[in-house]
Amino acid sequence: MTQLGPTRDIGPAYPAFAAYFLIAWVLALAVFLTKSHGARGLARLQLHYLAAGILIGGTGGITMNLLVPLLTGDSRYSWIGPLFILVFIALVAHAIIRHRLMDLRLVIHRGLTLVAAMLVSLLPVAIFLTVAWPRLSLHLESHELVVLLTAIALVSLLIPLIRDLAGQLLDRYVYRTHANYQRTLREASRALTGFLDLKALLPFLTETVATPTRCEGVAIYLRNRRGFRRAAREPRPVQGHFEAPDEAPVGTVAALDRTRDLLLCEEVMRERPTEERRQLHEELTRLNWSLVLPLISENTVIGLIAIGPKLSGDPFYPQDLDLLMTLANQAGVAVKNAQLYARVVLANEYINSIVATIESGVVAIDATGQIELFNRAAAQLTGLATEQTLSQPVAVLPPCLRDALVGSVAEGRALTQPEVDLSDGATTRPIICATSPLLDPAGTVLGAVAVFSDLTPLKELQEGRRRAERLSYFEMLASGIAHEIKNPLVAIKTFAQLLPRRHADAQFIAEFGRIAAREIQRMERLLERLRTLSRPSDRPRQPLDLRIPVTEAVETMRAAFEEKNITVALTTPPTACMIRGDHAELAQLFLNLLMNAHEATPPRGSLRVEVIVTETHASAAVFDAGPGVPADLLDRVFEPFFTTKQRGSGLGLAICAAIAQTHDAKLKVANQPAGGAVFSVEFPLAAGARAPVSA
Known about the structure:
five-stranded antiparallel β-sheet; 17 strands; elongated
């Protein structure tokens, strides 16, 4: 103790203690830093905060409580040293809260953060009172000091609340908003995923854009075949001259197509002023469009959003532009989806209307075998109710439809059933059924569709046609027979009527016998040919080489051809043309064709016979040099008793057609471009035939 008060006095061991403490501190800190240097990731970050707390707290405490007294001999500032422990505590607490130091997790209650915020807001007041307290305590009583302190604390706490409330009221008065951009974007993104109707989507977009910006107006334009047409508009309830014409300006659309970026009216003329930019600026100014956002889908501008100036007069800040551009990007996808959905709905309406009105049954299933489409005709033909069939497994369908659909899905190809029986429970009717797989662009089978039609009306029509054809055939056959028999009978009748008066005339009797025998033979030949025509041979078909009957027929007619000086050229393949047939009937077929060609070809003409073989068929063709067949008679040449010759029964080609039909062959006639007719017969090749069989 001295006259000035207590003073500090150190002993001789104090310097040694200070040296020991400093050496121990430095060595401990070095060991800590060395070990923390090997840490990685989160552990290293945690140790950095701990090291900073130890270094700052320890250095401050040692300096103020050890070194300063040692060097100055004065300890008046020793009270500052313990305060450095607060820095250590703050850094360690921060490491625990933010980085989970020592794997600790602290949960700070919201009320505690509010109290901390209030204490921080009172910190300037506390500093002021600390400075002014000596003077205040001299001039005010205790209760006055309490009231003053309470009033100052309340005012300090109420100032932020009053400031925020007044700011909100004034901002609302001048149309200024403070939107929560993250919440707006989150809610808009969630809502946009649920819109499929374009009529509901567009009003939502205009409201979503107009609400956070508080602009004079919003208009949405969508691209169609005639350009950009206005699809929606959101005028704000204030006096303004925001315009939204029916069609978007051409200059604005061209700028968006070129840049695929937003257009800000006030920045159009700031970069490289050009005549095009000047016109664009005038266009936006005239319409009072402050901002234009492109709606982009698949790297193509499909629309635009025109936004008027803010009602508050504020510009569009970067955070406004970020929000609006993000909304526009999402809106572009949503608009495109809505447009595609509208097209799909329209296409489905068309398909459903068409499918509902056609007379053929239509059934569609997905890849799992569930029935997705079942039209009215299908319900009538199967006897199943549409309501009880849709969304049911394919097993509920009749077997002929079920197996065809399942097979088409399994094999991934179209299947056709030319004629199967389908029963509706009361009636069994023949149907034709065709199924096709439904494929995506990658070729994956998504399902199958079956289209089937009732063949009953067609069968009835065919039966009626066959009946009419038979009646017509019989009429023609009866008329032909009557005509062909009448001539011989007239000759015989004439001689028979003269016989009573000239029975004593030997020459007359001889002439009568000769003519009667000739006419009777003529009728017998006619009846024999009719028998051949009406009842083809039922002899078994054997494998034979088509070249043989063709060659034999040519050899048989060789003398007749030479008599008229007709040149005959026969062309046959080097290998056998094996078919199944009757040698005698085929010889008659080709003999008739050659006789017909002989009669049609003029003297010193030429005639050609060709035999051709392919992978599945063998054919023989006879080419003559006659006048050909008139075009209007090509369909009648194979009818019985039809002939263009002065003499002839008209049964030769009809017999040829009958023989060809019994051999499953096709007999055709056509005119050659250079003149003359060609008769061709096409036979199916014999399966498994090994050797030719001759007559």
